[in-house]
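Poly A polymerase head domain-containing protein
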Amino acid sequence: MRLLDLWIDFVNLRSEDYSENSRIPTMTFGTAKEDAYRRDLTINSLFYNINTGSVEDLTGRGIEDLKSGKIVTPLPPKDTFLDDPLRVLRAIRFGARFGFVFEEELTKAAACDDVKNALAAKVSKERVGTEIDLMISGNQPVKAMTYIADLTLFWVVFTLHPKVEPTVSEECQGLCVAYLDAAWNLIQLIGGSSFTGEQRRLCLYAALFLPFRDTIYKDGKGKKVPVVNCIFRDSLKQKASDPETVIKIHRSLEKFLALIPLLTSNDDTQPAEVDMGMELFDVPITSKLRVATGFLLLEVKEFWRAGLLLSTLLYPSDTDSTQDFLEKQFELDRRRDLFKAAEDAIVNLGLEKVWDLKPLVNGKDIMTVLHLKSGGPIVREWQQKLLAWQLAHPVRDCGGMP
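Tokens:
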């Protein structure tokens, strides 16, 4: 109901009874103490008494754990997690969000096989996906994924297809978290204003799954499918556009790696030779960099900064993996400078929103000129050639970009 211009939900105090095969309990009316003890964590079990204006801590631990920064369950953690295994992920999310530490008994329970099996069997993938998405979109995504890996829950949450090529080792989870850590640190260093919330979210997913960018499986028809698609579809039940975007980001990386040295070069006198994988139509050699970059950005559109950022992480480095903190910070600064230099070059080329470019000639016009009755590969080929010409001649009176 709405009270004093605020929406208020009224719920009764409840007690819960769980069955072995479901995390959905049978609810009955309960006392305030029973309701407090059914909560996932002690810090979430506090009541505010509007009559006395006081906080009531019926578990006797909520306020203390809140002050000391501990993640604790009101009842024995293994029993709590077996009743509702989703609480494991909620504990991780709250622990990461607030920087709280896990009670030792809770850590052991979260990592035990019984709880992992229950998480895989009793919790819907939609609910798992929601929790993971809240972690990735939150303020401490690296800490959350580190907890998941440390508790040996990574492969429970991110289940791969049983027949992937090439084979993925269990130790790969460490590399996944390491890429996420590097991407997160670089985003923080660059500044959040370069990315929208959605761009940051999918950039972090692309970083987390970067070790899987060349991993595929064959579907029922024998078609090769990126395993990232399987993770989003089957393990996280996210919207179809999420894996499509992450896969596009992954596929852009090699091209960005080839373009970065050309975009950041201080030598403007040398023409840039770029392999476009197609015969260009009337494109001056000095314009090929703009054309190649434009085509790449048309593939990833508004997520091009995500592709560029991950490419800077993969860019060859002069330092090794044994560097100390100061050297790592220097390397991070260097990669930030590399990203900014390439980003500035793309903006200066007028390509920041190249996908808004209106083609000078549409498919119907091409069919008319070529005397074709229907479209096909030849129309697509000429569309690409004409677009390349348009990118190479960014003049307002030709309909190009300024």
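Residues 357-402 form one domain.
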